[in-house]
Amino acid sequence: MELKQLESFVAVIKYGSFTKAAQVLYMSQPSISTHIRALEKHLDTPLIIRTTKQIRITPRGRELYNTATAMLKMRDDLLTKWHHEDSNEIIISSSTIPSIYLLPQVLKGFRKLFPDIPFTINQDVSSKVLNSLLKGHIQVGFTGMKVDDDSLEFVPVAIDKMVVITPNTPTFRQLVGTKNAALHILMKYPLILRDKGSGSKAHVDRIFEKLHLTPDKLHVTAHLNEPEGLKNLVINQVGVSVISEPAVVQAVADGTLLKFELPKDTALRQLYMVYHKHDTQSSHVKQFINYVKSFSWQQKDD
Predict the structure, then answer these.
(1) SUPFAM superfamilies, per this entry (predicted)?
(2) 213 within 8 A of 187, measured Cβ to Cβ
(3) Of 1, 141, 135, which Cα lies nearest the Cα of 78?
(4) Adjacent-strand bridge partners of 268
(5) Which one of 49, 84, 119 terminates a domain?
(6) Helices (H), the chain
(7) Torsion angle of alpha carbons 232, 236, 242, 248, nearest 10°?
(8) Do 199 and 176 lie in a common domain?
(9) Are residues 39 and 168 in the same domain?
(10) I need a surface site. Which of 140, 181, 266, 277 has the fewest CB within 10 A?
(11) Which mean pLDDT values do the consecutive 10-residue runs of the chain (302 residues) have?
């Protein structure tokens, strides 16, 4: 049983046609048929029932399809990982807040030292950044959350602060400067929060826990996967929210949002650079990791 045979089999099932499978794999249709027959002979079982109008997969064919799909994905993931290791390019994935407010500063300084190193940067929620790192799809991640995994190295690089935001209306303006305003707002008004999987959402959950804001005391009206949409909903008086302070500096300065401080021991969270401890890293990736480590110390000293 060869990978080429499995590729042909998976393509026939996926596209429902020997002809289409041959086109996608840049092979002849007789070659595809030969691969399927060889598989069936090797496994001593029919995998596909052919008729003049359609093909139908047998139960054992379905089992093989699921296993073969997983095997081919593992191969592709491995080849992608090796390609990244051999390439001069640095593949980064970052959660929203680090990608918008931290990475530009980091890359600006790094590019001055190493102007010829190319980057590919993707943005996703923290949980998916970590998943991509574990699968070898990326080389370095930036997140707003930390997990217990011995294979990952988390390096603190910056401190982020969460604040409560409201629309700039008379109702909320009269609360500015009053004691426990943030707590009062969270308990009384509809809440708009980030989706699960984001570092911001995980930290907001911890804030609620520390403030003893159980679900029965909150009125969550919507979840969003990015902060810009969340801010716009608050500006348009759909509800209030808890968000990273750097994301709302301009809106507060423009007067479209009001900001209320949370207790300091609940508001602050750590942002991390994360990489796989046991990966064989290129010299360029090592240079970038070492630069970010020094950058994080510079931030603390400023």
Answers:
(1) Periplasmic binding protein-like II, Winged helix' DNA-binding domain
(2) yes
(3) 135
(4) 161
(5) 84
(6) 3-15, 18-25, 29-43, 59-86, 96-101, 103-113, 126-134, 170-173, 181-188, 199-210, 227-235, 249-254, 264-267, 283-301
(7) 50
(8) yes
(9) no
(10) 277
(11) 88 89 89 91 90 83 90 79 65 90 89 87 90 86 90 92 96 93 95 87 91 91 87 94 93 95 91 84 85 68 42
CB 126 within 8 A of CB 244: no
Give the domain CATH number at 24. 1.10.10.10
Name the residue among 293, 184, 279 with its Cα closest to residue 240. Answer: 184
AA letter at 233: L
Q: What distance in Å separates the CA atoms of residue 278 and residue 154, rounded to the nearest whole number?
A: 13
How is residue 284 written in tokens? 């360029």
Residues 274 and 154 sit within 8 Å (Cβ to Cβ): yes
Cβ-based neighbours of 5, under 8 Å, separated by 6 or more: 35, 36, 38, 39
Name the residue with tokens 């996926």: 14
Of 59, 84, 109, the position where a domain reaches its end is 84
Tokens of 20: 């289409």
Same domain, 62 and 114: no
Asked whether residue 211 is domain-assigned, the answer is yes
What DSSP letter does each residue of 18-62 carry, written as one string? HHHHHHHHT--HHHHHHHHHHHHHHHTS--EEE-SS-EEE-HHHH
Domain of residue 98, residue span = 87-297
- Measured CA distances, 82 to 71, 133, 139, 152, 266 (Å): 17, 13, 11, 18, 42
Q: Is the pTM of this model over 0.85?
A: no
Q: Which amino acid is at 252?
A: V
In-domain check, residue 302: no
Please tell me the total count of domains within the chain. 2
CA distance 174 to 185: 12
Residue 46 structure tokens: 């029919």
